[in-house]
Amino acid sequence: MPDVRCVRCGQTRAGLPYAPLNNDLGRRVLAEVCQVCWGDWLKYQTMLINHYGLNVRDADAKKFLSENLERFLFKTGEAEEVDTSKQGTISW
Fold this sequence. Notes:
The chain contains three helices and two strands. It is mainly alpha-helical. It has a two-stranded antiparallel sheet with strand order 1-2.
């Protein structure tokens, strides 16, 4: 695993051993995100799934998580703030 200069934390750390997704976004994560920040995303993703009761096989849920992954790791916008009044629903 080569070191990467992480776009999220700005530090040079160990990169991921393989692309976590089989698409362009996964290849970008492999090239630009460190293991520590990927671990932070996995925790955040789990929180989103549990909080909103997401079915990860659902296309809307996949889109929601993918958009939040980009926002969280690449700072392309504001990541979803967990609003407890929305529990069990996806709301954009």
